[in-house]
Write the structure tokens for this entry.
Amino acid sequence: MSQPDFSHDDIRTARGTAFRYLFLLCALLSILTTVGIILTLLIDAVDFFAQVSPVEFLTGTEWNPTHDPVSFGVLPLISGTLVITIGSAMVALPIGLLTAIYLSEYASDRQRAYLKPALEVLAGVPTVVYGYFALVYVTPALDTFLPLSTFNALSASIMVGIMIIPMVSSISEDAMSAVPDSLRQASYGLGATKFTVSTSVVVPAALSGIFSSFILALSRAIGETMIVAIAAGQTPRMVDLTDPAGMFLNSIQPMTSAMVQIGTGDIVGQGEAYKSLFAVGLTLFVITFVMNLISEFVASRYREVYR
Amino acid sequence: MAADTRDEPADSGFGHISRTKDVSFRLLALAATLVGIVSLAALLLNVAVDAVGWLDWQFLTNPPHPDPFQAGFLPAIVGSIAIMLVIALVTFPLGVGAAIYLEEYAGDGYLTKFIQLNIANLAGVPSVVYGLLGLGLFVGLFSIGYGSVLAAAFTIALLILPIVIISAQEAIRSVPDSQRQASYGMGATKWQTIRNVVLPRAMPGIMTGTILALGRAIGETAPLIMIAAPTTVFGLPNGPFSKVSAMPLQIYNWASYPQTEFQYGVVAAGVVTLLVVLLTINSIAIVIRNRYQQRT
């Protein structure tokens, strides 16, 4: 608050003080949640790493937690996650960026009033519904002209991509709207068309905000669970970069899908497979946490430039 | 927004400079904007058509059944509602309390910045990881029971709490400062000001945000799987500790059945039911927002 503070509860009432600390407690609960997440993941992951060496976990190329001989190499799961992330990025990043340009530079206020809520619906659809769509409608439709497996990375990627479009478009649009109008006017004054202004002035000026939205959207794609659990299958395999088509046309298994598989299985208790759930969860948490922090950092930089 | 001032001079003045490129880019951007909306609409139309004939009174009132023609959704519907009620009871006071602290009491110190950054980060933690938190904390440490109503509700409550806090903060921030100062000028204490001036003005915004967050909660599936909520339950939950399923879990379960009657019939009916409930929840939020926006 910039104005002088005329409030005076602390000296007057014990009740005011009590409420103050009660509310502080509510706010501190969020920190407790983070500590809780880190502790629950760490405690069981440490147990797991006592039995399986972290080196084997992080460099192993085979994931087979349940059948003898068991092996706990996380790389096939990470590469499955990578396939989905790349696939959904190819859908969501160009579409989201163009959407942001349209909303910020071309759309009338009236159009924007309809389009923005309509786009937000995309992020609000439960992911289990998207997973079902991918399995039951998208895969059969694509199957008519592509050699697809029933479970495949392509349909799942498309659905994850559609789900994260609003994350790219709304944050990018905010960044583009924050670009000062004087920059646009200067460009128009030099005889530029709207196309040139959008692509050569507005987008470069809003670049950090756009990057921030990309990172956040990719982080969502990495953590997305139900779409891949339903539609991408459960075949942990390493990415074969020499065969990009096969990578998308066949079944894969991202980290989240592997977690669901263990979670729905009958493996409860103290076994290695059960503990591996927490090791994979920790890996997923660390990756998304770092990406969210980067996104937050990049976004906070552009906010300062134009204010 | 900024667009109003620049539209006319730009378009009228430079109409002939590479007009084709300009127009085609505009159309491309518009097409990109519509692609997600149109494909979702197409999929929704498909599922609505498939649900016809399956979504009937018997479907809404029967328990699940291996025979698709007798399968029903009732335990999952009741389970979802029970979980939602507990979530609302937990997140509303906690979320509003945290938002009041951050907006009304906290200074600009490092603790505030840290809490703020932490909340933003929590909003981005994958839901499946919250499931592991619920498994370790509520099922493991507090022994509330695998897949019980309370374990499910507490887990998802933690998941949507950041969203509730952020939207409540925005609502509280939008209350003009002059009103607070007027209240102090009358000799009110800070707590009286918050209770009598700030909260009543911010309440529509807080309600809207909380209801939208509940809409998100109703679709969450992965955390429930992690705390070992059963994907199929045949009876209604009869207490906070009884095992519970939920609509998205039941849909997930049905989607794995190979019969086409399930894939294109029963699941479609379940999806439509879930979306109708979600739509109703979101409309309530929008009605609240519009109704109070007009008055201010």
Chain A touches chain B through 107 residues (CB under 8 Å). The mean pLDDT of chain A is 86.
